[in-house]
Amino acid sequence: PGAPRKRGAGGLVAAVVVAALVAGGIGGALGFWAADRNDDSGSTTVSASANPQDLKRDPGTVAGVAAKALPSVVTIEAQGGDGEGGTGTGFVYDKEGHILTNNHVVASAADSGQLTATFSNGKKYDAEVVGRAQGYDVAVIKLKNPPQSLTPLPLGNSDQVAVGDSTIAIGAPFGLSNTVTTGIISAKNRPVASGDASGGSNSYMSALQTDASINPGNSGGPLLSSGGAVIGINSAIQSTGSSGQSQAGSIGLGFAIPINQAKTVAQQLIKTGQPVYPVIGATVTMDEKSGGAVISDRGTGGADAVTKDGPAAKAGLRAGDVITKFNDTPIDSGPTLIGEIWTHKPGDRVTLTYERDGKSATAEVTLGQRKGDS
After folding, report:
1. What CA–CA distance (Å, rounded) separates 221 from 101?
2. Looking at the predicted structure, is the pLDDT value of residue 37 above 50?
3. According to the model, what pLDDT value does residue 30 have?
């Protein structure tokens, strides 16, 4: 989540290691003191069984799900030609070596940079970008020499997720690989617009919200159900810091791209290398909380806001109309509308509710398409 880091997590990792060593030293000293005091006490202790069977965890437990999923999750290191880059996460999509992740994790290395993917067993592989979808914030990379033993993570059905369902997130927060956190689905269909530190590269999603701890470095990692199926790709966090504090940590507000949408995008990227976006053929204002998605007076570069003979034009929509519902979902802004449109596919027929001159009306629209990021 957030912008890719320009610095490694060495400082944090070092601090964790030092803390462990200090704690270990204190524990050793206390242990020696206790043993010395108890030499003649006659006390008898009983040790827990060291039977290896005791180390096994039931498949339905968090430990069981994590143990099965961790070998299929990778830590991605991305570095651009200018030396800028960061750490993120991805997971095995298929046996051919495709890895699913976020666009913002690999964007810095997409053109002339370097990508590596490291598995939980420490084995590292060079990788290359297969395709990126900036708007969806989804990317597919491929291991250059994939091992034969790849196990893709099973993909769930994000449409069937319910608020309150348990979640498990796996990633590399602040570079700490193979970190597992837990929580629940806090909300569904949460409108989220996110971007990089430059204020560009905006993406829009109708997200799954979770309180599982997600931090910078978790981006691209799987959000799992209690059964171990991927239900989303962890992508963004809300923080209390200012926009300049791209490394702010978790406050329990994490957002994931629903896997049903991500799967469709991944299939497009693997097949053609570029994304396909459903569109209504109208430019809307990007003001937040404007009471709806307002169709602009003019489109990009002074073009018509409503594309001639496009889906919106055929449905009778025009500049100034305020779209307030997409099917049964209330729309409060342009970004919310885009996020909802992008959960569908070109050719889908949807119902738009809009206001014009103080009166409400509906229109049936067949979604068109746009290929590639513009």
Report:
1. 7
2. no
3. 35
For residue 131, give the H/E element and its range: strand 124-133
Spatial CA neighbour of 262 closest among 102, 88, 96: 102
As a whole number of Å, the end-to-end CA separation of the chain is: 23
List 364's β-bridge partners, or say none. 351
User: How far apart are alpha carbons 184 and 188 in whole angstroms?
Assistant: 11
Q: How far apart are CA 338 and CA 294, in angstroms?
A: 12
Please give the mean pLDDT across all residues of the chain.
84
Quick one: pLDDT at residue 11? 27
| Domain 276-371 bears CATH identifier 2.30.42.10 | yes
Cβ neighbours for 301, distance < 8 A, ≥ 6 positions apart: none
pLDDT of residue 97: 96
Distance between alpha carbon 83 and the CA centroid of its chain, in Å? 24
Torsion 19-21-27-29 (CA) sign: negative
| More confident call, 44 vs 301 | 301
158-264 and 276-371 in the same fold: no
Section 348-372 average pLDDT: 95
- Output the CA angle 210-215-218, nearest 5 degrees: 85
Return the CATH superfamily for domain 62-143.
Trypsin-like serine proteases (2.40.10.10)
Q: If you ran DSSP here, which 8-state letter would residue 302 be given? A: G
Q: pLDDT tens-digit profile of 211-246?
A: 999 998 999 999 999 999 999 999 988 876 544 445
Among 3.90.1640.10, 2.40.10.10, 2.60.40.1080, 3.50.50.60, name the CATH number for the domain at 158-264: 2.40.10.10
Q: Which residues are catalytic?
A: 104, 137, 219
Query: What residue spans define the domains of the chain?
Result: 62-143, 158-264, 276-371
The answer to whether residue 141 scores a pLDDT higher than 90 is: yes
Distance (Å, whole) CA 149 – CA 156: 22
CA atoms within 13 A on the CB side of 282: 30
Contact status, residue 89 vs residue 232, Cβ threshold 8 Å: no
Whole-number Å distance between alpha carbons of 312 and 339:
17
Q: How many residues comprise the chain?
A: 374
**Cβ-Cβ contacts under 8 Å for 5 (sequence gap 6 or more):** 85, 86, 87, 175, 216, 217, 246, 247
